[in-house]
């Protein structure tokens, strides 16, 4: 376990060298030892200095969770830096972004897939630090990249399979790029891979001002369909409409199902992107078009359903589809990243379409607990960014 600062203050040199990663204040210890000139006393100490420096250079800061719970349980520590394996690229993380899954993992309700990092964080943007063996993609050090992760994003470095790596569009900063991988790939997957959206269809997007929502609105427009949204405030509806939503309904004020019927002339929505779940099922089925596709990717409104769901869905010949991205195979993610890179990524640099990640706010890595509190308050519009490197020091 990690040693407290109080107990590690008087560690001897050999103790420090034996377990540098067990101490939160390892870097302070290094500075103290260097300032005393202890390593200049003779050859044994010179060797110790090289060993100590080498150990420290292989460390990184990362956000850890010892005990599941609230944002106060997020702890910033020094841990060993990952080493890239076959086909992996080591990224120096400049920024990461929050997702609802992060809050669930912090509470102990959404563990990472077996064998993956237990550090929270599903997306990053940064620069290539080094390449593992057998990397084939032509990546080189200092390339600006962004990546979809199974975990490990709340850290200074992360090793990822090259299949989930994407170049950062030229006109985006690394802060903006950090808002793309998980959110935009999720929206693209739901619309294209799962719902198989067609031109001209009406797509109802719940939480239209969320990260996935703001991405979905823009993607629906890009592919020639019609986005309509729900949100809990006029400010959020205004943002969605600025991004291209044809209509918006405040679910706190009136029935969104009635709004969808009015907008479509009673035909209903061809596709519903739903991150709410149980609490919305009756209105969802009510406003679903005949042969429509209801795509479930979250259960923020509850997991249980009371009532005649199956009978009413059957009467609409409706399709109930569900999808998660984190637990998908590397092959699936590789195909998703490739399709997204070809069909969507160029439009972030195209003035005519002007796709853009929507950023709500930015926090430092030291303030990650406040970032979680901000998301839990449900006030964010777009993505919450955590800067691992201050923006003014990032490679733009």
UniProtKB/TrEMBL annotation:
One Gene Ontology molecular-function label: quinone reductase (NADPH) activity
Top-level taxon in the UniProt lineage: Eukaryota
UniProt keyword Glycoprotein, yes or no: no
InterPro entries (UniProt xref): ADH-like_C, ADH-like_N, ER, GroES-like_sf, NAD(P)-bd_dom_sf, Quinone_OxRdtase_PIG3
One Pfam family cited in the UniProt record for this chain: ADH_zinc_N
Gene3D superfamilies according to UniProt: Medium-chain alcohol dehydrogenases, catalytic domain, NAD(P)-binding Rossmann-like Domain
Keywords: NADP, Oxidoreductase
Residue stretches making up the Enoyl reductase (ER) domain: 69-386
The keyword Oxidoreductase belongs to this UniProt entry's keyword annotation: yes
PANTHER family recorded: QUINONE OXIDOREDUCTASE PIG3, QUINONE OXIDOREDUCTASE PIG3-RELATED
Protein's name in the database: Quinone oxidoreductase PIG3
Naturally occurring in which organism (per UniProt): Channa argus (Northern snakehead)
């Amino acid at each position: 376990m990690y040693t407290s600062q109080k107990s590690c203050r008087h560690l001897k040199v050999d103790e420090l060298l034996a377990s540098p990663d067990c101490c939160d204040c390892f870097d302070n210890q290094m500075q103290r030892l260097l300032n005393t000139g202890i390593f200049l006393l003779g050859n044994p100490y010179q060797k110790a200095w090289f060993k100590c420096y080498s150990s420290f250079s292989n460390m990184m800061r990362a956000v850890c969770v010892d005990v599941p719970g609230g944002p106060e349980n997020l702890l910033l520590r020094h841990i060993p830096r990952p080493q890239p394996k076959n086909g992996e690229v080591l990224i120096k993380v400049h920024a990461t972004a929050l997702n609802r899954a992060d809050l669930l993992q912090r509470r102990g309700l959404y563990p990472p897939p077996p064998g993956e990092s237990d550090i929270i964080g599903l997306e990053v943007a940064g620069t290539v630090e080094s390449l593992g063996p057998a990397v084939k993609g032509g990546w080189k050090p200092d390339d600006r990249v962004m990546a979809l992760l199974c975990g490990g994003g709340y850290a200074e470095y992360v090793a990822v399979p090259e299949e989930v790596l994407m170049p950062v569009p030229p006109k985006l900063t690394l802060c903006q790029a950090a808002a793309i991988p998980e959110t935009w790939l999720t929206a693209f997957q739901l619309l294209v891979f799962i719902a198989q959206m067609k031109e001209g269809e009406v797509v109802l997007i719940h939480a239209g001002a969320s990260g996935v929502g703001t991405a979905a609105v823009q993607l629906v427009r890009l592919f020639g369909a019609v986005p309509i949204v729900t949100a809990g405030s006029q400010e959020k509806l205004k943002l969605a409409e600025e991004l291209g939503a044809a209509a918006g309904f405040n679910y706190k004020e009136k029935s969104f199902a009635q709004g969808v019927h009015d907008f479509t002339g009673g035909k209903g929505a061809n596709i519903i992107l739903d991150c709410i779940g149980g609490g919305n099922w009756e209105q969802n089925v009510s406003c679903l078009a005949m042969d429509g596709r209801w795509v479930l990717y979250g259960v923020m409104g509850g997991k249980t359903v009371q009532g005649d769901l199956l009978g009413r869905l059957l009467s609409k010949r409706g399709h109930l589809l569900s999808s998660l991205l984190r637990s998908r195979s590397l092959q699936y993610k590789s195909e998703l990243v490739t399709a997204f890179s070809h069909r969507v990524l160029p439009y972030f640099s195209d003035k005519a379409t002007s796709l853009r990640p929507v950023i709500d706010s930015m926090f430092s890595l030291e303030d990650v607990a406040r970032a979680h509190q901000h998301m839990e308050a449900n006030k964010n519009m777009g993505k919450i960014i955590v800067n691992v490197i201050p923006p003014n020091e990032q490679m733009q």
